[in-house]
Amino acid sequence: MTVARKINALHFGILLFLLACFFILPAYHVGALSRIMVLAIYAIGLNILFGYTGLLSLGHAMFFAAGMYGLGLSIKFLGVSVIPAFGIGIISAALLSLLVGLLALRTVGVSFMIVTLMFAQTIYLVVLYFGEYTRGDEGFVLQQAERMLLGFDVTTEAGRYFVAFAAFSICLIGFAALVQSSLGKRLVAIRENEERARMLGYDVWRYKLLAVIVSGTVSGVAGALYALLFGYVGATFASVQYSILPLLWVLLGGAGTTIGPLIGVAFMFYLIDASSAYTSAYMLIAGLALVILTMFAPRGIAGILRTKVSPWLP
Amino acid sequence: MEFGPHLMLAALEGAVIASILVLTAMGLSIVFGVMRVVNVAHGEFFMLGAVLAWYVSTMLGGHPAVGFAAALVIAPLVVGLIAAVSDQLILKRINYDPDRTIVGTIGMLFIIQQTTLMTFGPEARPVEAPFNQRLALPWFEFGEGGLQMIWPWGLSITSYKLFVIFAALAVLVALWLFLTRTKIGLIMRATQQDSEMAKAFGVPVGTVYSCVFGLGAALAALGAVLVVPIQQAHYLMGADPLLMAFTVVIIGGLGSLPGTVIAAFLIGMSDGIISVFFSPTLAQIIATFLVAMILVFRPQGLMGKAET
User: Fold this and answer.
1) Do B296 and A115 meet the contact criterion of CB atoms below 8 Å apart?
2) How does pLDDT run across A47-86, given as a tens digit for each residue?
3) Is the dihedral of CA B43, B47, B48, B49 positive or negative?
4) Between chains, do A281 and B291 touch, taking CB under 8 Å as contact?
5) From start to end of chain A, where are the E strands?
6) Within an 8 Å CB–CB cutoff, is residue B23 touching chain A?
7) Which residues of chain B have pLDDT under 70?
8) pTM for this model (two decimals)
9) How far is the C-alpha of B60 from the C-alpha of B75, rounded, in Å?
10) What are the φ/ψ torsions at residue A181 (nearest 5 degrees)?
11) In this predicted model, what pLDDT tens digit does every residue of A260-279 receive, in sequence order?
12) Are the beta carbons of A102 and A76 closer than 8 angstroms?
């Protein structure tokens, strides 16, 4: 098999497996998997920027929140139906990422991380400040009647699973196509050696901006999808914690791999699920995982697979 | 109260905030200056200082001043030691790589915070101030008989808050003497200027890094012990000082100690004054956004040198 075939087979295999899970697994895990798939889209969003372009953003929660509030607020206050609301969510995330990209890309390294963190904190505080509309930390619930997707009820277990699955499939395949395209290769070139990429004549700044926009928009899609499928919009999703979590997932699964985000989210989800039976301080597990990962396995699970088993992993 | 006395009250509150802030930010700034890494767990060392102050003062009992004085010595020492050990255990092993250090210290943040939650609990606990007299302050204004001194009702400060301001000043002076007049200070500055060259001259750079990391954490803990009689100890209290200290260090110029002091004073004062007259959330929004913009358009800060 050629490498391209192997890669396609791997991705379709994963999607088939996820589809089969719906029929095999008990209801609890089906519910968990729909959440995992939505969050994996979020992790894919961060992975485009962090894993492939080498820019570490510590403020991706603002894009997730832009999608989430774009959809939630337009349904609640404009009374629009799901499809246009979804569009508004995506456009808000895209515009925000354009703006943040234009400003934050003037900085590099540690400054870039802190600037994105500060912008995200500003957005979080803005959400709290307009508590009259956003209901702050408490958040608001989208009613079942407001969440009909073309007459299709997404509040049922099956509806939720298949919408999440469809969205995840599109994102995974699109993401795989992106990283194998020449654009993806240019992004990796920037990650590996920005100076050399510039010397070869690539407009590095433009590609970085593009990466921020794509990454932010995909994160916004995840946010809008989360609000739609789980019917809840709250300020927690804009907080620092939700900027750190996708980083954790990507690192755990393997930064710069296509299957890493899904593996990372699933692994972390079940790790926290298992540990929350013993302690309420489940973020301790996240902390330990971060320290151990950065010390012993900075390449993550898929990264280890790539070096040890199958070097062709995209 | 008139506007004048009100402003003076706000300025005094601001001075107290600035005093705590300058200690916390100094810790972050020294660590960044010497080791070139960003310590995201800095706020948690602050929190640990406050929590330890509660433990020490509760265990000792007796007069509040005894427990407080003990906490002032024990908490920074213990926190500094914890930081130095975690530097040896974690940061040293990842070679102080800037990106991986951020990830690692985020991990440390959660570990410290959640361990405190499991042991200390979710409640906020107070530490009694060693002394707390209310001192009325005079105000001058032009009345019928020319300039006269009046004592407006409500214009006062507690003796403890005054002590915090002077204690912070004393620590700053001590720190300055330590860095400029002692051999260890000299070694630290040498490492800051050129760690490769320092190593070539036989400076044990690894040990220096651990000491600096410990010193930074101890300064945060010291600030926390000072603040805990005013603000209670709580396991989530580290987030605000972390963001504020970040702000200060950035505005002052990454790694510039004089810049840090000036910025801490400016930000502490304006925070005190703004939050008396405006909504605190709005003040925070404006402050956070402005800091981000400063970093975007003037990455070297107010006093820092441009990096090549």
Assistant:
1) yes
2) 999 888 888 888 899 999 999 999 888 888 887 878 888 8
3) positive
4) no
5) 140-141, 148-149, 152-153, 232-233
6) no
7) 1-2, 141-146, 152-155, 254-255, 299-308
8) 0.81
9) 14
10) -75, 170
11) 888 888 888 888 887 777 77
12) no
Domain edges within chain B: 13-130+185-297
Residue A279 is nearest to which of B113, B118, B289, comparing CB atoms?
Answer: B118
pLDDT tens string B33-53:
888 888 889 999 999 999 999
Percent of chain B with pLDDT over 70: 91
Distance between CA B308 and CA B305 in Å, rounded? Answer: 9
What is the C-alpha to C-alpha distance for residues B26 and A283, in angstroms, rounded to an integer?
A: 29
Dihedrals phi, psi of B141, to nearest 5 degrees: -150, 160
Residue of B nearest to A295 (CA): B94
- Rounded Cα distance, A2 and A15, in Å: 20
> Which two structure tokens, joined as six digits, stand for B101?
């250090």
B137 compared with A217, residue with greater pLDDT:
A217
Q: Which helix (H) or strand (E) holds A277?
A: none
For residue A251, which residues of chain B lie inside 8 Å, CB to CB?
103
**Chain-chain contact of A121 with B288 (C-beta, under 8 angstroms):** yes
Q: How far apart are CA B65 and CA B244, in angstroms?
A: 29
The residue with tokens 């809008």 is A224
Give the helix, strand, coil percentages of chain B, each rounded to 5. 70, 5, 20
- Nearest chain A Cα distance for residue B69, angstroms: 32
Question: Pick from A62, A41, A40, A38: which is nearest to A243 by CA?
Answer: A62
